[in-house]
Amino acid sequence: MVFFQKDEQLENLGNGILEATWSEFPALARNQVALTWIVYDPPVPVNTGGALTPDAFWHHPVRGFQYRGVERIYPASVVKLFYLVAANEWIEKGMIQTSKELERALRDMIVDSSNDATSLVVDILTGSTSGPELPPGPFETWQQQRHFINRYYHSLGWEDMETINVCQKTWGDGPYGRDRAFYGEMFENRNMVTTNATARLLHSIVGGVAVSSMRSQQMMALLQRSLNPDNLPQDVEEDQVTGFLGGGLSQDGQIWSKAGWTSQVRHDAAYIELPNQRPYLLVVFTEGKTQAQNRQILPFISGLVAQAVASL
Known about the structure:
This protein is of the alpha+beta class.
C-alpha cells in the first residue's frame, strides 16, 4: 500500500505529462524515468507548522500519481534527505549530541550538497569512520554499524521503506579502503531508494511529523530554495534549481527541495507552492548518461506538472 490514494484525474494528467516528455526527449527511455506526484487538496494538511498530530496527519487522505515509483534507483545526493531526518531523530532521542560542527555539516549537506559534510554526518550517525580495509571480524562489526540507518527506516513499518538501502556515504571520486569493500565487488551494496520512499519521507517533513514539529520546521528551513536567479550560488557546478524541478517554475513560487546528480543520474525531490494553486510534492528520478547531462528534462516535467495543478 502506498501512502497516497490513486486518482483517475491525476492518472490521466500524469500519463499525459510523461507522453509529452517522451515526445520532447525521444532519447529518454521509458525505463529511465520514475516519478511520484502528490497533490494537497484543501484543507491542506502540510506546511502548517505541525498543526496536525502524527496520527491525524497519517489518516488524512492525499491523492497522487506514480510511474515506476517502486523501482530501486541510485539516489545520488537525494539520499542526504534520509540522513537529515535520521540525524534529527538521533539528536531528539539523545542518541547523539548536537554540536556546532554537526549543525554546520547538516546545513552544508543539504544547502550545498557537500559530500565532505555528508561524510561527517554518516560517521556520527553510525559511530563508524572511513579508512583502510579491516580484518574480517572488525569489518563485520563496522558493517553492522553502517546499517544502523537502514535499520531505523525499516523499523518505521512503512512499506515504501522496505526495499531501500541508505548505508553509504556520497563521494566525489568514489569510495576507497573499507568503504570500497563495503560496496561489494559489483557495487551491489550501493545506496538505492525509490521515488515513493523519497516522497513519503518528504511528505512527513512537510507535514511537520518527521521526528517532531519543531525539527520538521528546522529541516524545511534548510530545504527552502530561491527561484530568483540572482539569489542562486554562482560558484557551483549545480545550484539545485537550474536544470532541476525549480527550473520549470515561475519566480513567484516557493520550493523546498533536495537534488541529486552524477554522470549517470539526475534527480530532484521537491515540495512546491505556487500562488493561488494547490500545493504539491514532486519527485522525479532520471537515469542514463545522456539524461544526466540534459538540464532540460526536469524543468520540462516540472513546468507541465505546474500547468496540470493550475487546471485542477
